[in-house]
Every structure is written in C-alpha cells, then in structure tokens.
Specification:
The N and C termini lie far apart (121 Å). The protein is flat. The protein is an alpha+beta fold and 708 residues long. The strands form six sheets. It has a five-stranded antiparallel beta sheet, with helices on both faces. 46% of the residues lie in helices and 23% in strands. Residues 274-326 form the PAC domain.
Length: 708
C-alpha cells in the first residue's frame, strides 16, 4: 500500500483490489484534508499576522489582512516594503532594509525588529516582526509573523511622557528652592551694598555740589541761602561768603521777590519742581542768560523743608545757536541757488536730508523723497559700494540711470562723500546730465553713420571689381569642365577594357572601380558650383547696380514671396526645421516694383533666419487680404531671440544695428521701410526680448482699372 501511494500504481489482479486501493487512497486524502483544514484553521485563527515570503508575499492569514485593512488579493504578489513608508524612522530606505532582513532570515538568522507600516486606509502603524526560515517541499521560504503594537507604543510613550513630566516638576521645584535661596542671599548682599552706597552717596553729593559746572543754591523754608557752590558765585560774580544768609532775589535779580507770582512760591504751594529761562545783567555789565531749575525738599508729611535751585549758564550756548542759525540760513540759500540735488544718508542708505531743488531732477518733492526707505530704493540697488567708500572716503563721477516720477529715463552723475554729521554719515550730490548724454549719443550715431556710408561706397566699388575678377576664371571653368567630362567618357572605354584584362588598378590615389563612378559626379559638382558662383556674382552686380524705378508693375504678393523663398531656400533650411508658409487665396493685385518688394521680403526673411538660434524653433510666413481697409498684407513671424525695448524704436534708423560685430550694416530695415513708403504701404514690427519677432507688411490693394 505504501508503495502504491509513493511510487507508480501497480496493476491490480482483480477489480476488488482496485476498489480497495482507491478506497484507501480516498481515506488518506480525507485524512490529509482534515489535517489541512485543522492547520488552515490554526493558521487563520492566529492572533498575529502571518506572511509567507518567497521573492514576494505568497501567502497570508486573515489577521494580516485585518492589520493592513485590505483583502488577501491586495497582499499576494507584493513585497513587505510596499506596505511601508519610503523611509523608516532611522532614515533608511524601507525596501533596502526589508531585502536585508529577508536575506538574513534565509541564511538561518532569526530576525526580530520593530517596523513602520502603512495600512491601505493611509494610517501609519507600528508593528513587531519576527522572520524565520522554513522549508516547504525542499524549498526555503521566510515565515514572517507580525502584530500591531501601535497602542502599546502609544501607552509606552504616554508613560515616558508622564515620567518626564514628573521629573520636570521635581526639577522645577528644586530649581525654585535654589533660586529662592540665591535671591535671599542676594537680598542680604544688596542691603549691605546699599548701606555702603549710602555712605558713599553723601560724600559724592558733597563732591558734586562743590565741583558742578552749574550754579547750585540751597534755600531754607524762609528762602534764605544756606549753601552756594563756586559755579553760582562765578555766575553772579560774587564770593560765596557774600552770598550765604541772603535772599535769592538779593543775589539773582528778580522783580517778583517771593510774591505769589514767584516761581519759588509756586513750588511751595503745589509743584514739586519747575524750570524757566532767565536773562540778567551781571555786575560787570555783561548780559547773561541761564536756565533755572528748582525743586522742593519735603518731609514725609509733605512739608517744605527747603528748595534746591540749579542755574545753567546758557550765554555761550545762545551765541552758538545764533551763529548756527546764521550759518544754516547761508547754506539754505546756497543749496537753493545750485542745480544739484543734495542728499544726506546714514550708513545703510536711509535718507535723513534732501535739498529743496530735488524736484527738478527726480520729479518728487522733498516730502515724497523722504517717503523712500533708502537712497537705493530711489536710484537703484547699491549704485555704490559702502566698502569702497569706507576705504577712499569719496567716490566721484558715478553715472546712474534713474526713472523720474513722470516715467522719464534720466542719466545722473553722482559724487558720494563720507561725512561726519550727527544725523547722517554720507553726503551724495546728483547732477542731471541727460541732455549731455543724449547729445553725445546723437553725435556718436551721426559719426558712425558717416563712417558706415563711406564703407558702403567703398564696398560697392569693391563688389564690382571682385565680381569682374571672379567671372573670368569661373567662365574658364564653365567652358573647360564639359570638355574634360567628354574626355573622361572617351578614356573610360579604354580604362574599362584594361581593368577587364588586368583587374582593378590605382588611378591617382583612387582605385579605378571607385573612380569610374565618382569622377562623373565630381565633374557634375564642379559644374554646379561654378554655375552657383556665376549666379552669386550676377546677384552682387544686380545689387550694386541702380535698381529699377518703375512703380507700375502688377504685383502678386504670393508670386514675390515664392521668388524670395526660392532664393533663400538654402539659408532657410539651415536656420529652421519648421518653416511654415501660408499663401492667401483670392489675393488682389496691386501696383509697384517687383524687385524692390522682393528685396524687402528677403531682408525680413534673412533677419528671421539670423534671429533663430535653434532649428526646432519655427519661422512662419503668411499672406492675406483685409477687405475693410482694402489692404494686402504679408507677415513673417519667428521664435527667435527678439528685440529689446531699448532697440525696437531704432531698428529702422539708417546704420542702426545690433549686429555690428558680426557684419551688420544697419541698412536692411532702413531701406525696407523707405521702399514700403514709396509703395504707400507700412512696415510694422512687434517684438519682445526672448519671445520672438513679428513683422507685417501692408500694401493698399488696387483694382485692375485703377491708375498707376
């Protein structure tokens, strides 16, 4: 029976044996099925999640699905890291850690660790994982058991937090007691210091009283002078001994003499202190001014025990103020008389003073200027270096471009100087040189135009001479190449016969088998290149020759565009892979000069080719007709570099070019604009730096019966 179950079944001698054999097999299968059901019930009834890992998750129990909040189909075929965040709390990659742990388990090393998982509902949980190696049917697997310890972790964290809080309370209580002891010790020390300070204070007050620069009087309750210092005696020009025992108004002239209007009387009645300014004539006849301050000495019950009066001599100060006011008036008149705008700023550029004539340069009045945070907000970020100014103390002739309140661009020249003033440290003077700079620019442009015009005259003469000199050798090539080609074909018969008899051979530096096919192509290429040279020379001669002045030709704008594209075919192919041409239908004709309009279109297409720096960028050409205004139009649009706002207004000026360094003359658009004016049309250009350019030509369409 065992052999029958294990090996190949043996044929039974009788049907009864076969029936018994099958029945035994069924019993064995039923027993195995019950055992399988028992193990399945145990497997599914485990309180921990169980996973069987091959290269992926190949089996799991119901608790694993419950922990991860998903179905079994969502687990089988995945890897454990698919149910984890990208990185674990220690910063390592979840997939890499899982690979290492599984590999170690397959080597027989049991792995036990904590792991962060993400349930299918997006909630992150903490799990405890154990990995063991098991063998099934001779193959090693990893059996993973895991359980959700999120609640345990939370309770553990809460416990740790509670312990930490208790430790913190104990530490706080201990620190409070320590601080109380320290403050108590400090209070004892402070009182001892206070006692010593009081002893010194009396000595210091005595010293201050005797050495003070201000005059000091001490009066008793009856207004008698009981003490006076040397400064007061010098102020009133009397000795100290002659002052003591007298009334204050006997020494310091006062018309009130302790009546109800006296300042001293006001202190006695209610005020604690008061001050006023007093002028008097001294014994020597000098007019003096001083600031008098008085304060009452009161008992704890508020009774006036005496009065202390302080006399500050303001005579020198008054004279200095008068001179300062005179100087300020002089400088104000000076600032109003100059054209420069003067600023005083701090080290960080904050404006503390601005001259009154700033409006003529910046358009803002003084109050509006002071509304700017710093000078750099007004004239641009860091137009000078604080570090450089600190070294050289003065920076002169700085050119600054600013925009005034009205939006006009202005060029200023600035001088910056370090100043040692209380309110500011930097003195800045601006002078408007806008008109001067514009005049210099106009003079430079006019000079460049004269130079360029001379170059163009020389170029015209040179082109005519070069064209003539090139034509002579080129004509010789055109005449001789066909003769050489015929000679080659005649000689090839003999050379072919020689190769048939002796095999391939060298002709010059080429094998004849290669040369017999290549040489005719060389002759054809030479002839094509020579004809191209002739065509280029003819175009140069036509360009240098005075153009036709006939303006009565019937012009089909689509025909002119086709001719221009044909001439520039090679240049357009090199410039872009996205040449898009749209010819309008039903285009009315107009009258003009075919050659001149072709020249305009060629100029615009050449500019578009030069502006495109990537063959993936497009050049689009379209023609059309607007019936309302009766205008035929042609538009060229490129995705090139574009034109800056500064250059755009000048692109049609003669000799104005942004391509001077690469051979630009500045005449293409200027001539094109003039040709459009001759035809009663218009050339308009729309461009933005970095976004491309769109050029539009418009011509007034005419009916067939219109006069020229």
């Amino acid at each position: 029976m065992d052999n029958l179950l294990i090996g190949d079944p043996q044929p039974a001698d009788q049907p009864e044996d076969l029936i018994r054999l099958l029945a035994a097999k069924d019993l064995e299968i039923a027993a195995m099925q019950k055992k399988l059901e028992k193990y399945e019930a145990i497997f599914q009834g485990l309180s921990d999640g169980v996973l069987l890992i091959d290269e992926t998750l190949s089996e799991c129990n119901q608790e694993a699905c419950q922990i991860w909040k998903c179905d079994k189909e969502d687990i089988i075929g995945f890897f454990p890291s698919d149910f984890a965040p990208l990185f674990q709390p220690d910063g390592e990659n979840s997939y890499e850690i899982a690979q290492k742990k599984v590999s170690e388990a397959l080597r027989g090393n049991v792995q036990k660790f904590e792991w962060k998982d993400i349930r299918r509902d997006g909630i992150m949980i903490d799990t405890q994982v154990i990995l063991n190696r098991i063998e099934v049917d001779g193959k090693d697997y990893v059996l993973a058991t895991f359980k959700d310890i999120t609640d345990l972790k939370i309770k553990e964290n809460e416990k740790q937090a509670l312990l930490h809080m208790m430790e913190k309370i104990i530490e706080d209580r201990t620190r409070t007691l320590q601080e109380y002891n320290e403050s108590l010790n400090e209070e004892i020390a402070r009182r001892k210091r206070t006692e010593r300070n009081l002893e010194h204070a009396y000595m210091e007050l005595e010293h201050i009283f005797d050495t003070s620069g201000d005059g000091i009087l001490v009066l008793d309750s009856d207004r008698n002078i009981v003490r006076a210092n040397l400064a007061f005696a010098e102020l009133v020009e009397q000795p100290v001994e002659g002052i003591l025992g007298k009334k204050c108004f006997d020494i310091f002239p006062c018309r009130h003499k302790c009546t109800d209007h006296c300042i001293i009387q006001e202190i006695v009645v209610g005020s604690s202190k008061t001050d006023f300014e007093k002028e008097f004539v001294s014994i020597s006849g000098e007019r003096k001014s001083c600031l008098v301050k008085a304060a009452a000495l009161r008992s704890e019950g508020g009774e006036v025990l005496g009065i202390v009066k302080n006399y500050k001599d303001l005579t020198s100060y008054k004279r200095w103020v008068d001179r300062l006011q005179e100087s300020e008036e002089f400088h104000r008149i000076t600032l109003e008389s100059i054209w420069d705008a003067i600023f005083l700023t701090t080290d960080d550029g904050r404006i503390v003073f601005v001259s009154c004539n700033v409006t003529g340069i910046f358009g803002y009045d003084s109050d509006e200027i002071l509304g700017f945070d710093t000078i750099f907000d007004l004239v641009g970020n860091r137009f000078y270096s604080n570090h450089e100014l600190a070294e050289v103390r003065e920076i002169r002739n700085l050119e600054v471009e600013v925009t005034d309140k009205g939006g006009q661009q202005r060029t200023l020249i600035a001088n910056v100087k370090r100043a040692a003033l209380r309110s500011g440290t930097t003195l800045i003077a601006f002078r408007d040189i806008t008109e001067r700079k514009n005049a210099e620019k106009r003079a430079k442009i006019e000079y460049e135009q004269l130079v360029q015009a001379g170059k163009m005259v020389s170029l015209g003469i040179l082109v005519s001479g070069v064209a003539h000199e090139i034509n002579n050798p080129n004509n010789s090539i055109i005449l001789n190449v066909p003769l050489l080609s015929r000679m080659w074909y005649d000689a090839r018969v003999i050379l072919d016969q020689y190769m048939d008899e002796h095999g391939d051979f060298m002709l010059g530096s080429l094998r004849y088998s290669y040369a017999r096919e290549r040489v005719p192509q060389l002759f054809s290429g030479i002839m094509t290149s020579s004809r191209r040279i002739k065509h280029i020379v003819q175009d140069l001669k036509n360009y240098a020759r005075q153009g036709s002045t006939v303006m009565n030709e019937v012009i089909d704008i689509n025909g002119v565009l086709r001719a221009a594209v044909l001439l520039l075919d090679n240049q357009l192919q090199k410039a872009t892979n996205r040449l898009e041409i749209g010819y309008g239908f039903g285009m009315p004709h107009f009258r003009g000069n075919f050659q001149k309009i072709e020249q305009v279109i060629i100029n615009i297409l050449q500019n578009a080719c030069e502006a495109v720096d990537d063959k993936a960028k497009a050049i689009r050409v379209r023609t059309g007709f607007d019936p309302a205004p009766g205008l035929t139009w042609l538009e060229v649009e490129d995705q090139g570099l574009g034109i800056s706002d500064e250059d755009l207004p000048h692109v049609t000026d003669p000799f104005y070019t942004t391509k001077r360094a690469c051979g630009g003359t500045g005449l293409g658009l200027s001539i094109s604009s003039r040709i459009m004016q001759e035809h009663g049309g218009e050339l308009t250009i729309h461009s933005r730096r970095g976004e491309g350019t769109r050029v539009r030509l418009t011509f007034p369409a005419r009916q067939e019966g219109d006069a020229a």
